[in-house]
Design goal:
4-stranded mixed β-sheet, alpha+beta, 3 helices, Nucleoside Triphosphate Pyrophosphohydrolase, globular
Amino acid sequence: MKTVAKALIYDSNDNMLVLKRSESHPYFAHQDDLPGGEIEPGEDSVTGLIREILEETGMIIARKSVVFASEVLTKNNGSNQLYTVRLSIEKPVIDISWEHMSYQWVTCDLIEQNLITADSYMLIARAWLSK
């Protein structure tokens, strides 16, 4: 069973972090993305998400700041999980990994309407944000 966890990361002014996948990214090159990724065997979802956020952004996230938001089960008994993370500072500088080519801090209405992606995570995020 494959579990993938991603995060809506909010800064202190409610801007959300959106990454842009690089052209060498194995899935959905040049598409908008949320920080996170596949959970490794033996990891719980929150530990794996914190690891992925560190790898992709350079940010160290406290476990207590990670809050479960939504889960969608996949056809192969997998799980796509969405979490929220609230930061205490405004728009921190991000140290992106090879998987991404840029990032931006966007308002909630922008993530709901205008992001370019074929990734189901953005659809999950949009649905959760519209509640």
